[in-house]
């Protein structure tokens, strides 16, 4: 895929290992990963990028719950940004869904499951029926 046509996907996590893993998966799949480690920087990047993006978001490991405000402020209804969250806790995933996260994956999950979820979110017509923890 030509670099000019790569779809940007923001990867937001406080853990470098997540950024490397998901960044590599996205790049191999023809996307352009944009790694971010700060909620404040993510808000600035999303504002500058404009609407219509996907954020792969770690829902755990943050010092506070600021990621929920990020989801609320950039939700599909307000900014046409979709969040694909990943967490180990059903409660955390549910909180993210209630804040406006498009879909949440409970980890560990297979690489295929992650990439299928990314493709669902990148599809031209967002499928609203998939907003539940997998």
Written account of the structure:
This protein has helices at 16-28, 39-49, 66-73, 76-79, 90-99, 111-122, and strands at residues 7-12, 31-36, 54-58, 82-87, 103-106. Strands 2-1-3-4-5 form a 5-stranded parallel beta sheet, sandwiched between helices. It has 6 helices and 5 strands. Helix content is 43%, strand content 20%. The chain is globular. The chain has a single domain (3-128), classed as 3-Layer(aba) Sandwich (Rossmann fold). Residues 125-134 have low confidence and may be disordered. It has 134 residues and is an alpha/beta fold.
Briefly say what this structure is:
The protein is of the alpha/beta class. The chain has helices spanning 16-28, 39-49, 66-73, 76-79, 90-99, 111-122, and strands at 7-12, 31-36, 54-58, 82-87, 103-106.
Name of the CATH homologous superfamily:
Response regulator
Order of H and E elements: EHEHEHHEHEH
- What's the tally of helices? 6
Helix share bin:
40-55%
The share of residues in extended strands comes to: 15-25%
Which overall shape is indicated by the principal axes computed on the Cα atoms? globular
Strand order of the largest sheet: 2-1-3-4-5
| Strand segment count | 5
Integer-rounded radius of gyration: 13 Å
Give the CATH architecture: 3-Layer(aba) Sandwich
Question: What is the terminal separation in angstroms?
Answer: 29 Å
What's the structural domain tally?
1
Report the CATH topology name: Rossmann fold
